[in-house]
Model the fold of this input.
Amino acid sequence: MVTKKSILSQLYASVLINSIYSMENYPAMFINAVMSPLSILIIITLVSRGALLSVSVSGALIMTMVTAGIGLQADLSHLKNDYKVQDMVVSSPTSVTTYMVGMALSEIVFVIPTLIVLAVLSVLFIKTTAIGAMVIFTVMSLMFIFSIALGFFLSTYSSDVIQNYAFIGILSIILATIPPVYYPITYIPLPYRYIAYLSPTTYAAEIVQNAIGYLPLPAKMLVIDWAVVAACTLVLLVVSIKRSRWREV
Done:
C-alpha cells in the first residue's frame, strides 16, 4: 500500500540521487548549469551595450527552466540504462507520476543557485509590478513543466545517454538559443519572424517581456500567447504520461 510517507520518501530519494549526489561529486555539472544561461546574458548585454539587460535577465530565467527540464532526459537515461534504477522503480508500487514529480524536483534543486543569482539580477535591473512578477513566475513554471514532460518522454525512448546529449543540444538551440528569448522578436526581420513562432518559448518570452514593460502587446496577442503556452504544456504533459515507454522497458 502506497502511503503519504512512502511517496515523500520516494520524492526525497529522487532529489538525493539525481541532484544532491551530482552536486557533491561532480561540481563541474553545477558550474555548467550556472554558466549556460549567464553566458548568453552577458553576451547579449555587451552587444546591446546594456540596452537589453532587463530582457536578457528575463530570458535567462526562461532558459534556466527550459534547460533544466530537457536536461532531465540525460539524467533519466543514465539512471535507467547504467544503474537500472527505472527497472527497480517499475517493479515497485511507485507510479509514473510520483517518479516524474520526484525527478522534476531534483532538477529544481539543481538550478536553485542559478535562480538565486538571476533573482538578484531581476530585483536590480527588472522594474515590474507584483502582478508582473507573478506573470513571470507562472510562465517559468509552465515552461518548466513543458520541458520536464518533453525530457521525460524522450528519455523513455532512448537506449543510450549519448543519444540524449544530442537531443539536449538540439532542443536547447530550438527552444532557448535561436528563439527571441534573450531579445525582443522585433529584432528579427519580418519575413523570418514567423519561423520563431514555431517555438513555444517565443510566446513565453513575449509574455514576460510584456510583463516587464519592454514589449507592449495588445490584449488579443497576449491571449494568444497564453493559450499557446498553456496548450503546448498540457498536451505534452498528457502525451508524456500516456505515451511514455514506462513499464514496457
